[in-house]
Amino acid sequence: MLVLDGSSLSLDDVVRAARRPGPVAVSDEARARVAASYAFAGTVAEQRSVYGRSTGVGANRDQEVTASAERALQLLRSHATSSGERRAPERVRAMLLVRANQLAADGSGLDPRVLDALVAMVSADALPPVREGGSVGTADLAALATTALVLTGERPSAPAVPAVPATVTFDAGDALTFMSSNAAVLGDAALAVADLRRLVRASVVVAALAFHAVRGNVEAFGEPVEVATPFPGAQAVCRAMRTLAGPSPQAARIQDPFGLRTFPQVHGAVVDRVGFAEHVVVAMANTASENPLLSARYGVAHHGAFHAAYLVQSLDALTLAVAQSAQLSLARLAMLTEPAYTGERPFLGDGTPAASGVMIVEYSAASALAELRALATPAGLQVVTLSRGVEEDASFATLAARQALDAVSRYRAVLAAELVAAVRCLRLQGARPAPLAEALRWLDDRDGGAPDMRDRDLTDDLLLAEESVVGLPDTVSVPWPA
């Protein structure tokens, strides 16, 4: 059972809980911390105005209100306004887990019974009907207000899922506190970063297959290059490529095209961006970001920690870096269609005059890359002014997270196209590079090992390659970066 303590939730914890739901619990220490924060918040509210408890919200911040459970319910109802399609179950699960863990940290001022009800919801997989629209990256108000209304029993769970096992009353200080989080964005970001991390590693294996198919020059990955490119990601790619190149035969050329020669520099940047994005997601998922913070240890603070600038910038940079690396994948695929590099027939044809071979595989990769480039448009460039001008900025991390999620399938499609061509080339050559022998055996098991090389519809090959590329990192012994 996953135990939440508000400080040690990992990216992999979020992904596992989202895709393989099961029971969760809150540690006794964390629940005691929540109870202490709740008691402190009550004391503070008796002594001074507290945003969202004794005042309105947004531009209504200067209006005093009577704190009551009915007022809390009205706030939740109004803020549950949303639009668009319902989110996939795994995305909602990720949101709920992140929110529960954040509330287990110090500073929410929330009634611990609300946290108990949320944890019960997660354990029962009683998912709220969260829709796509309603967030601009300064708290997922609509998604979390909808969740709160399900916890109160006012709204049902999403269709075809269990009802919540327990309902709870939201008091005056619970409504805004519960909504004051980017948990939905963080859940999406966790899923996207984990999937991209996997593909970033797979890309190294695919590039190594292409390297052997065109008899590449290993000097581009040598130790001197680690000195010339003094960044952890590039150095890790160099080491991995040297491992997968092995004692390769003499290079066919003094230096390769950029698809191979600049692979450490371009793909190394992706490795580093993945690492930083994971750091940001994990840090934010283990931190109380409610406004205001009400901590018995640290005191009271009205603040802007809900603004997800770190998150949007890390995700924008990651998606852009992925698009740049995918361009090199297409460049290597182009090399694989050219007899001057492979020693085989054009487009890796079977010998039939004017055979198309993998010609349209290259088109498929170019199409996916075009979509990936569009997704790399920085979400952080968006601007907005809301709530009568008092909220004059927003991170739009929601958009960045969705773009990163969508980038996963497009990047996978590009790599799959390169994989189809590289393996086809090696089979035509009768080559079985020793460092990749296990990977090739694994691929043989998946497609039978001797596909028909005649011109035919390669759709099934590409779809199988999309499935296979995810498992490639497990077939090699490579010192992946942490």
Number of helices: 18
Helix content: 55-70%
CA radius of gyration: 26 Å
Tell me the major beta sheet: 2 strands, parallel
Strand order of the largest sheet: 1-2
Instruction: Say how many strands there are.
Output: 4
- Domain tally: 2
CATH class of the largest domain: Mainly Alpha
**Might you state the CATH topology name of the largest domain?**
Fumarase C, Chain A, domain 2
| CATH superfamily caption of the largest domain | Fumarase/aspartase (Central domain)
Helix and strand content put the structural class at mainly alpha
Mean pLDDT: 92
The global form is elongated
How widely separated are the two ends?
25 Å
Low-pLDDT stretches: none
Instruction: Tell me the β content.
Output: under 5%
- Under the CATH scheme, which architecture of the largest domain would be assigned? Up-down Bundle
Q: H/E element string? A: EHEHHHHHHHHHHHEEHHHHHH
